[in-house]
Protein 1
Amino acid sequence: MRSTLALLVALTLAVPALAQPQDAQEREALRSFLEDTISDADSFEDRYDAEVWLVDMSGRLTRFVADPIYRLELLQDIHAAAVQAELPPELVLAVIEVESHFDRFAVSRAGAQGMMQVMPFWKDEIGRPDDNLTLNKTNFAYGCRILQFYLQKENGRLHKALARYNGSVGSRVYSNKVYRAWSRHWRTDPLDWSE
């Protein structure tokens, strides 16, 4: 993948916070889900598909991340976490754009950290107090698994799952922001945004 990274760099140069669930059962279910699923994975099975996706997304990410090598490493980490959590990587990119504008050191008023704005209490909840939420791989693993949990809970309904992710159940303000980011900057394949 190192030579692919060099090729991609050359081609690229040419071309609100997660709320703690109020319901004790939901909180325990999410805690258990996170504990069971936080892990790393290499998500690209086909080299050609990897190169096409990375070059395409790298060009789109330029507005947020100037360094082409960091951009590609970031995209690899986002893709891996998204695929591991059975999420469209483009949806995760839209969430990150809305949550932090790709600032790994972002901290919300509520204390959520990193690109996906994960609340630090989750580290203690799953027995991993030493995890660093400003490390992208860690942040993406938590954020993607939390979003996966809420998508499963809401039977794939994106607006409702995103509202839960953001802690704004009953409102579509946050999910509409994610939808706009996805449709303007990250869309590749259709996603079902209907209720």
Protein 2
Amino acid sequence: MAVKWLDDPEDHDYDAAADYLSMLAEEATVTATVNALKSAKPVYREAKDILRAARLALLPPDNPHVRSDVNKIGHGKKLSPILLVRGTPADALQIADGYHRVCASYLTDEDTAIPCRLVSWVPKA
């Protein structure tokens, strides 16, 4: 079954990204980075490459959130695009929002092109 995607992330995805990123950077940097995500053009990346760049393990299919997203895929529902923040060469890519959706997509077809919003950290002004 093909994974279907919404054209744009949902508003609550940006809030979730800000919550997560707030543990990694100061508020002004997080706000600027999330604003950059909101205006970023879509890019497409494969699930296997996102997980490798983020240095994250694939979550198992019995993870409740992954299972929920796999069920959505099975019912033809569209998933929200993934929000990514590029790390430095020494630091991993941050999946600011969408880790479970990446895993569900991987479990469905690891080569699926996933729509993402990808930005670099925006330093506070």
